[in-house]
Amino acid sequence: MANVSVLNMEGNEVGTIELNDAVFGVEINEHLVHLAVVRQLANKRQGTQKAKTRSEVRGGGRKPWRQKGTGHARQGSIRAPQWTGGGVVFAPVPRDYSVKMNRKERLAALKSALTAKVQDNKLIVVDDLKFEAIKTKDMQNVLNNLKAEKALVVTPAVDQNVVLSARNIPEVQTATVNTINVYDVMKHKTLVLTKDAVASIEEVYA
């Protein structure tokens, strides 16, 4: 089991914590991590893109000129794709972009992402993260003390003071144990977990 230092909000070491290998020490499966990221990005797409084909564009019901004898190329409609104002040849239509992934695969991908942060020394554990008031400056000072840049901050449950204090800091995002996902973990350079969040993750995902 990996041992990680536990820091306080001032950035001083106050102890160590032993991480569960069932969550933070698995064999990394890059393929599943890739699939999980692709799935999440694909599932974000609305799929409401639409353009009109030649049959949907208004007008063009009459043949613009007779078939032969004009010297022009033969035309059947002024709404054919080659005409200005005509329809699109292979127009996009509303569709479902969602990608399916088995629950066990999603879990394995998340464990792989968490393990990768541990192996890269990009996992920071804080003994507690509490603010008396909503203040961006306080949150920035804590992140500076922890030397955490482009961080994903995970707490056991929603703490409005933490969420709102971090909201205006660029490239910093907050999440709870139940909402963490592979894409957010991999997108951020540093993963900051509270001690309680580590216990909750091991309880939920082990």
UniProtKB/TrEMBL annotation:
Gene Ontology cellular component list: ribonucleoprotein complex; ribosome
Region (Disordered): 44-80
Biased composition regions of type Basic residues, renumbered to the chain: 60-71
Keywords: Ribonucleoprotein, Ribosomal protein, RNA-binding, rRNA-binding
Single Gene Ontology MF annotation: rRNA binding
GO biological process per UniProt: translation
InterPro entries hit by this protein: Ribosomal_uL4, Ribosomal_uL4-like, Ribosomal_uL4_dom_sf
SUPFAM superfamilies: Ribosomal protein L4
The keyword Zinc appears for this protein: no
Coiled-coil annotated spans: none
Domain of life, per lineage: Bacteria
NCBIfam families: rplD_bact
HAMAP family referenced in this protein's UniProt entry, alphabetically: Ribosomal_uL4_B (MF_01328_B)
Oligomeric and partner information: Part of the 50S ribosomal subunit.
Function according to Swiss-Prot or TrEMBL: One of the primary rRNA binding proteins, this protein initially binds near the 5'-end of the 23S rRNA. It is important during the early stages of 50S assembly. It makes multiple contacts with different domains of the 23S rRNA in the assembled 50S subunit and ribosome. Forms part of the polypeptide exit tunnel.
Record PANTHER family: 50S RIBOSOMAL PROTEIN L4, LARGE RIBOSOMAL SUBUNIT PROTEIN UL4M
Similarity-based family: Belongs to the universal ribosomal protein uL4 family.
Record-given protein name: Large ribosomal subunit protein uL4
Annotated organism of origin: Blautia hydrogenotrophica (strain DSM 10507 / JCM 14656 / S5a33)
Gene designation: rplD
